[in-house]
Design brief:
single chain; about 300 residues; alpha/beta; Arc Repressor Mutant, subunit A; D-Maltodextrin-Binding Protein, domain 2; nine-stranded mixed β-sheet; two-stranded antiparallel ribbon; 12 helices; 11 strands; elongated; transcription regulation; transcription
Length: about 300
């Protein structure tokens, strides 16, 4: 075998950062040593792994084919090294990317569970929209994702973690707050503030509401849930958010959940990972502990 783990580590670092100089910093190598390792790997494999696109190093077709296989070899090497040094079979570092609702309400408990039972696992967490989570997994930036709703990309494997539902809310002072039920005609006339396009919440809401109402009066779209909650609590707007995001505010009386009989907005929260990636023991551990954490909790939040 003519290539080395060091050369594969250089290849992965350049693929991750898109830059030889940034890869050198990441690996604590000189830029010349990094360039030399990459050039040697390409020469031994007989194929170009990168092409320059401006200042960025972009993977070629051969580089994209190699990357999941190189990552698997590097993960196995890390497990061997840490397993012997720390005497822990489950140890190492993993990138986890989660959408807002699970990141705020479920992931902290999951990470605490992992920290308690598997202290040698280091979890690097990012929070993005559902589309952003999928993109980060597809681009190898993160090993495991947690999304709201479904992903139909065949390059992604998906496993349901739990279920939640969306609810339409208004302020306690809104005229709709005093109604036992709210009609579709009233929703159509209301002013709405919603999550941004690309978020899991918005996808579920749009797919549910547009079967019933052709056009909504959407005044604002924001990424951050606290902004939407505050606007609704202090203004004449309606919004639709996961129940987990508004539960405490409904209980305190600052928001009121509307009863719209025609709207049923349950969805799944799921783990996702690349279909072409070999089994990752750290990702498997996180998924297993996540499912165990949900035992005894409501089947739908």
């Amino acid at each position: 075998m003519r290539y080395s783990l060091k050369q594969l580590a250089v290849f992965e670092a350049v693929a991750h950062t898109g830059s030889v100089s940034l890869a050198a910093d990441k690996l604590s190598l000189t830029q010349s040593a990094t360039s030399m390792s990459l050039a040697q790997l390409e020469k031994m494999l007989g194929r170009p792994l990168f092409e320059r696109q401006g200042k960025r190093m972009a993977l070629t077709h051969w580089g994209m084919w190699l990357r999941p296989k190189a990552k698997k070899l590097l993960q196995d090497a890390q497990q061997i090294e840490l397993g012997f040094v720390e005497q822990h079979l489950i140890s190492g570092e993993i990138g986890l990317c989660a959408s807002q609702t699970p990141a705020e309400h479920l992931v902290p408990e999951l990470i605490s569970t992992i920290d308690n039972d598997f202290p040698e696992i280091r979890i690097n967490l990012e929070v993005k929209s559902t589309d952003g989570v999928i993109e980060s997994v597809l681009n190898y930036k993160n090993d495991l994702g947690i999304i709201e709703g479904r992903c139909d990309d065949t390059r992604i494997h998906q496993e349901t973690w739990c279920r939640d539902h969306l609810t339409v809310v208004v302020s306690a002072h809104h005229p709709f707050a005093r109604r036992d039920t709210v009609s579709l005609a009233q929703l159509e006339q209301a002013k709405w503030v919603l999550r941004e396009l690309g978020s899991g919440t918005r996808k579920i809401f749009d797919s549910s509401i547009h079967r019933l109402i052709a056009d909504l009066d959407v005044w604002r779209e924001y990424e951050h849930v606290p902004v939407l909650r505050s606007m609704v609590a202090n203004g004449p707007y309606l919004t639709c958010l996961p129940y987990l995001d508004v539960e405490k505010h409904i209980e305190s009386g600052s928001l009121v959940a509307l009863n719209v009989p025609e709207l049923k907005m349950e969805r799944t929260l799921s783990f996702i990972w690349r279909a072409d990636m070999a089994d990752n023991p750290l990702a498997t551990c996180i998924k297993r502990e996540g499912l165990r954490m949900m035992k005894g909790k409501p089947s739908v939040f």
